[in-house]
Amino acid sequence: MVDLDIQIPTTFDPFAEAGELGGTGTKEYVHIRIQQRNGKKSLTTVQGLRHDLSYEKILKSLKKDFCCNGNVVKDNELGKIIQLQGDQRKNVSQFLVNAGIVKKYQIKIHGF
């Protein structure tokens, strides 16, 4: 008989390598997203900031500069997430770059 190199199909996990590398790709990028609420209301979320930053001080500055409300939400998988009322995506990205918190190429803006 002839030996054939046949691989038996197994379950493939496309995110297995990400777990070995130390988590998802959010460590190198700051993701700014918009979430639609009811009607015209929306939320802007900022995720992926470095852990050594003071989220409360950043939130306080964002709230004061953009005249909106917001809070910091702790998530088990994603870490701390800043939420702001309204569509503040462009304002937040400009603020983070001008404050020197992140570089412009590290920001990913999602939504609409």
What this model shows, in words?
With 112 residues, the chain is α+β, with helices and mostly antiparallel strands. Helix content is 24%, strand content 26%. The protein has a five-stranded mixed β-sheet, with helices on one face. Strand 3 (70-75) and strand 4 form a beta hairpin. The longest helix is centred in the middle third of the chain and has 12 residues, at 55-66. The chain is elongated and about 75 Å long.
Can you describe this structure in just a few lines?
Helix content is 24%, strand content 26%. The protein is built from three helices and five strands, in the order αββαββαβ. A five-stranded mixed beta sheet has the order 3-4-2-1-5, with helices on one face.
Keywords:
single chain, 112 residues, alpha+beta, Translation Initiation Factor Eif1, five-stranded mixed beta sheet, 3 helices, elongated
In total, the number of domains comes to: 1
The pLDDT mean sits at 84
What is the count of β-strands? 5
Low-pLDDT regions? 18-26
Order of helices and strands: HEEHEEHE
| CATH top level assignment | Alpha Beta
Q: Main β-sheet: number of strands, strand sense, barrel status? A: 5 strands, mixed
Shape field: elongated
Determine the N-to-C terminus distance: 60 Å
What structural class do helix, strand and pairing data support?
A: alpha+beta
Radius of gyration: 19 Å
The DSSP helix count reads 3
Spatial strand order of the main sheet: 3-4-2-1-5
CATH topology: Translation Initiation Factor Eif1
The CATH architecture term is 2-Layer Sandwich
User: What fraction of residues sit in β-strands?
Assistant: 25-35%
The CATH superfamily is known as SUI1-like domain
- Which percent bin holds the helix content? 10-25%
